[in-house]
């Protein structure tokens, strides 16, 4: 437990007034109403948080959302509040255990609605968001978080993963005795109207600068230092074809439970890492059965970045016609099917059916050749376990990102399972780098370097073997 001097802990209170359910476009939330000691009413939207949760329950993802009538209710593009609110609810629903405290009284960073609008008028005349507040006689940020902390305490939340790009929120909560085990940045795509506001938040209000680094990486330049530069810099520096693969698995090596449930095996920080990888490649490849079971979107949502082309290896064309990949139209989908597979004629415009005429199974090297012919040289093999293993066994993966989550499933859908080595001398031991992402550990395995080292040791050919059925990953 994080401990703070007692005198820092707050005497603020939050009285629970109502507990009900709110169905939303992101799913059903528990909605709890409170009255703070100052008389202000707050609400908490939560998923997977119950009054009888044991003390050792995993730390939920928590967003403290500051009321913003213009952004939240009216869809203003002057700030990023409305999009952050929706994105946060989406993330909470996706991760299955989280709370969003909608903090009233925080309007205009605590100066109130009309004063915020006066500040907007000053900004129209040239001031930035900080100077406008100062000109009106306010602090740049007048918010306090003691009532929000009291709401969390009432919900039994003392340890949490905080969804924010504002380090001041983290320190405020810590000072109130809350154990913030991790800060997860929240980023929504900038718009021309709010670019200056977002820049001021970074330059003058201490918000994470990391996303500037990310923007640079997306544009193909590597910042001189920083976590993102270190993690993704050499992917950006490399020209030419590149094959990445990723899997998120349990301590006992499964990517999903026996029933195929693959939700929240790894945490939000790993998911963000996966979205960054997607943004850095031309195409992601997924097996047909995984796509049918998980119904993934394969787009970039947790960070800003371009969506890759989505490639489904689905010899039998078993992907349901209602799946995201065939219906959502947000990014191109290449549907690789056997020449004889039945495919309806009236597919959505973003879907291109690629008929596989070659005899035999879809060999990984032929799939890559087909993609390279289309200019898709940088690819990420995303799953499931058998597809990733097939590409690894074929000696085609340059970098494998294997995330291990501290969860034990017992039995389920296997993760990485490659051809067996008879002795340890024959096992693959490649150069690695590792990062702790929340509660998970990512190991980046440099298989390309290992291949070079191995050919140096023995001239023997470990050529690309064909695989039986590359698309199947889940039972
Ligand atoms: N005074 C003032 N308040 C603003 C302005 N633009 C947005 N806000 C308010 O700022 C609050 C949101 O705070 P932000 O600084 O955008 O973000 P944050 O909550 O500190 O940080 P994140 O957790 O990363 O979103 C809302 O209450 C908005 O009403 C502005 O120009 N002036
Ligand atoms: Zn706002």
TrEMBL record:
Its cofactor is Zn(2+). One of its GO terms (cellular component) is cytosol. It comes from Ornithinimicrobium avium. Residues 17-185 form the GTP cyclohydrolase II domain. Binds 1 zinc ion per subunit. Transmembrane segments: none annotated. The keyword Secreted does not apply. This is GTP cyclohydrolase-2. Residues 241-412 form the Bacterial bifunctional deaminase-reductase C-terminal domain. The active site is at residues 141, 143. Its EC number is 3.5.4.25. Residues 453-475 are annotated as: Disordered. Pfam families: GTP_cyclohydro2 (PF00925), RibD_C (PF01872). InterPro entries: DHFR-like_dom_sf, GTP_cyclohydro_II, RibA, RibA-like_sf, RibDG_C. GO terms for molecular function: 3,4-dihydroxy-2-butanone-4-phosphate synthase activity; 5-amino-6-(5-phosphoribosylamino)uracil reductase activity; GTP binding; GTP cyclohydrolase II activity; zinc ion binding. Belongs to the GTP cyclohydrolase II family. In the N-terminal section; belongs to the DHBP synthase family. Zn(2+) binds at residues 68, 79, 81.
């Amino acid at each position: 437990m994080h401990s703070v001097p007692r005198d820092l802990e707050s005497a603020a209170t939050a009285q629970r007034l109502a507990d009900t359910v709110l169905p939303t476009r992101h799913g059903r939330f528990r909605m709890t109403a409170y009255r703070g000691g100052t008389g202000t009413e707050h609400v908490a939207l939560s998923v997977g948080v119950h009054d009888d949760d044991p003390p050792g329950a995993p730390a939920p993802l928590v967003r403290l959302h500051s009321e913003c009538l213009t952004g939240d209710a009216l869809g203003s593009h002057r700030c990023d509040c409305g999009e952050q609110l929706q994105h946060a609810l989406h993330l909470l629903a996706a991760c299955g255990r989280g709370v969003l405290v909608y903090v009233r009284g925080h309007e205009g960073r605590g100066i109130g609605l009309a004063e915020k609008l006066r500040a907007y008028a000053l900004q129209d005349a040239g001031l930035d968001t900080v100077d406008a507040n100062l000109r009106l006689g306010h602090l740049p940020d007048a918010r306090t978080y003691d009532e929000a902390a009291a709401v969390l305490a009432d919900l039994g939340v003392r340890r949490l993963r905080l969804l924010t790009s504002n380090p001041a929120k983290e320190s405020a909560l810590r000072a109130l005795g809350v154990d913030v085990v991790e800060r997860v940045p929240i980023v929504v795509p900038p718009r021309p109207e709010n670019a200056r506001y977002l820049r001021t938040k970074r330059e003058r209000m201490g918000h994470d600068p990391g996303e500037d680094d990310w923007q640079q990486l997306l544009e193909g330049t590597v910042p001189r230092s920083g976590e993102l530069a270190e993690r993704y810099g050499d992917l950006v520096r490399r020209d030419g074809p590149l094959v990445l693969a990723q899997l998120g698995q349990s301590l006992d090596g499964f990517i999903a439970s026996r029933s195929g449930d693959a939700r929240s095996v790894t945490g939000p920080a790993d998911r963000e890492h996966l979205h960054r990888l997607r943004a850095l490649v031309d195409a992601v490849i997924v097996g047909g059965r995984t796509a049918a079971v998980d119904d993934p979107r394969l787009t970039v949502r947790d960070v800003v970045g371009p969506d890759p082309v989505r490639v489904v290896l689905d010899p039998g064309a078993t992907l349901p016609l209602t799946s995201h990949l065939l219906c959502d139209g947000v990014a191109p989908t290449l549907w690789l099917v056997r020449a004889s597979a039945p495919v309806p004629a009236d597919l959505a415009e973003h879907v291109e059916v690629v008929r596989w005429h070659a005899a035999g199974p879809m060999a990984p090297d032929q799939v890559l050749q087909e993609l390279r012919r289309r200019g898709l040289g940088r690819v990420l093999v995303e799953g499931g376990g058998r597809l990733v293993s097939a590409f690894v066994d074929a000696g085609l993966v340059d970098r494998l990102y294997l995330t291990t989550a501290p969860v034990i499933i017992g039995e389920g859908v296997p993760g990485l399972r490659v051809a067996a080595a008879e002795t340890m001398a024959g096992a693959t031991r490649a150069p690695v780098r590792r990062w702790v992402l929340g509660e998970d550990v990512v190991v980046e395995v440099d298989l390309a370097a290992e291949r070079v080292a191995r050919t140096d040791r023995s001239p023997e050919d470990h050529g690309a073997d064909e695989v039986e059925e590359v698309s199947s990953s889940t039972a």
